[in-house]
Design brief:
39% of the residues lie in helices and 23% in strands. The protein has 244 residues and is an alpha+beta fold.
Length: 244
């Protein structure tokens, strides 16, 4: 496969939070940063005034362009990330350059892995990349560690993040280990079709390879087979699902 699937077992941080009735847009937020923190972090209400003020002062809003790395294996402790707009991709890569996506972060999703070094004193070899123009709140990792040591609600939240994301990572591990690439490509294309609500997907073979931990050549060969079988129609940068 080119990637050590055992590496996946170390990546278990992230969490999907409930939607708020308030919305934000890239470049212009309806909610202030402190209000956003109140709306998205369930332990915020359990902090005392001093802890709340410190949390607000030691966090910032970052804006990222499509393809920009927010965190990598060469990064220092980036901090806890809360998605405000756009989406992010978390992946690992092999020395050969091949990649496999572990999970994605959408609106109000929270990612712990970029702050995990503050707890484990280890920097995981993972990358966090903006998939389009995106924005996020970054909370200082050392502050998060401090709060978790003094407030049981913060620690419980961190444990909940870990438990939630582990199931997603185990699913990726199961797919990579026990399912054929033909099946994984089919599932991926159907998932993207449902997400985009369209049978026409504007995606390259390289993108699919990076998502599934394969090579562009292998992906192209399987897509060509699907096309011959009448399941899809392939053109440059576009795949149309027919009878997949």
């Amino acid at each position: 496969m080119g990637l050590l699937v055992t590496e996946i077992l170390f990546i278990m941080f992230g969490y999907v939070l409930p939607k708020s009735i308030l919305k934000n847009n890239f470049g212009g937020y309806i909610m202030s940063k402190d209000q956003y923190l109140k709306e998205t972090l369930p332990f915020f209400k359990d902090l005392n005034d001093e802890e709340k003020n410190e949390l607000i002062s030691k966090s910032f809003i970052g804006k990222y362009e499509k393809g920009e790395l927010v965190h990598s294996k060469n990064s220092s402790c980036t901090g806890l990330l809360i998605t405000m707009s756009g989406n992010f991709r978390v992946f690992i890569s092999a020395p050969s350059g091949r990649q496999i996506t572990l999970f994605k972060l959408y609106d109000r999703d929270v990612c712990m892995l970029s702050a995990s070094c503050a707890f484990q004193n280890i920097t995981y070899d993972v990358n966090l990349e903006a998939q389009n123009d995106a924005s996020a709140i970054i909370i200082d990792s050392s502050l998060l560690k401090k709060l978790s040591q003094s407030n049981i609600n913060v620690m419980n939240y961190i444990l909940s993040l870990t438990q939630d994301k582990l199931s997603e990572v185990m699913y990726v591990l199961e797919q990579a280990t026990f399912f054929s690439l033909d099946e994984r490509i089919t599932d991926y294309l159907l998932e993207q079709s449902r997400y985009q609500d369209s049978n026409i997907l504007y995606i390259t073979h390289e993108n699919i390879a990076n998502e599934l931990g394969s090579s562009r050549e292998v992906i192209s060969r399987i897509l060509k087979k699907f096309e011959k079988e009448g399941k899809i129609e392939v053109s440059r940068g576009k795949i149309t699902l027919i009878k997949l």
